[in-house]
């Protein structure tokens, strides 16, 4: 590793014009170099609003692609509490929307972390919730879960399990023929926001209270010896779409499920929580970043560049980054609304949009001695 003397280059409008010293740039045997900072971006409310690209996003990504005073490409990953599709499908869509090539190993969705626990349940039947039809089942299978089932499968097996929803032809076509009286469910994974809360709450309760056999007798004990593991991948109570007001997220579904469970059994059910701002998700993201940097460098990265988190949600993006020791930048293009008062978790910086966020972070790093 060696110091890199910065030479004067044309600046982005918001960067100061004095000559400064770049903190350090790592050089590697293959001639590649890594800048002193990398980025982790939320997607919804930062780069996109609903299906629409936020204009500042493309300008920000141009800077990361080399149009910056350092004259180097700045690596980044996308860390979202969204999901419901495979990372490869998501990267194709994002590449088209953002106008830059996104690789699947740059995307961490809420459920991507489940790849790290699949070995526990690869051969066991699991219930997967969320998304449309059997899309999350296919995602689960691609991760290595060999026996994944949906609540639509249950409804196709016994319509009386929830008689308030009739399967559409498309839903029925997505189901597997299964006799759940012979299938002991070992875990429930809420991959993505459920589309039918009432159906999913009912079937999840059936699994938990009958110790895995849907339709079996309920066994309600305070601390079961072998509880059904319940995993939520996204704690967000709210998320920002192109609707004028934020929408309820998977965190709201979790609260609804726990309220019903407590009303029936007398206590909430123990669960595992992934997604921002959990420590597990940020550690997973840091590993993905390191792997990405070593791929680009063609060798081991001895010292991680500083990681900047850019997000729109103080409760997830900012809280998680602060907990991980990353500088955090809150943008005003998503969930956070300045008119409602200061954010619940204090960011390192508040920016109008992601373009300003990237410029500020680059300027800050260039001032480091």
Automatic annotation (TrEMBL):
PANTHER family, per database record: CAT EYE SYNDROME CRITICAL REGION PROTEIN 5, CDP-DIACYLGLYCEROL--GLYCEROL-3-PHOSPHATE 3-PHOSPHATIDYLTRANSFERASE-RELATED
SUPFAM superfamilies linked: HAD-like (SSF56784)
GO annotation, cellular component aspect: mitochondrion
Source organism of this protein record: Polyporus arcularius HHB13444
Protein name, per record: HAD hydrolase
Gene Ontology molecular function: any one: hydrolase activity
GO BP: any one term: glycerophospholipid biosynthetic process
Keyword Zinc: no
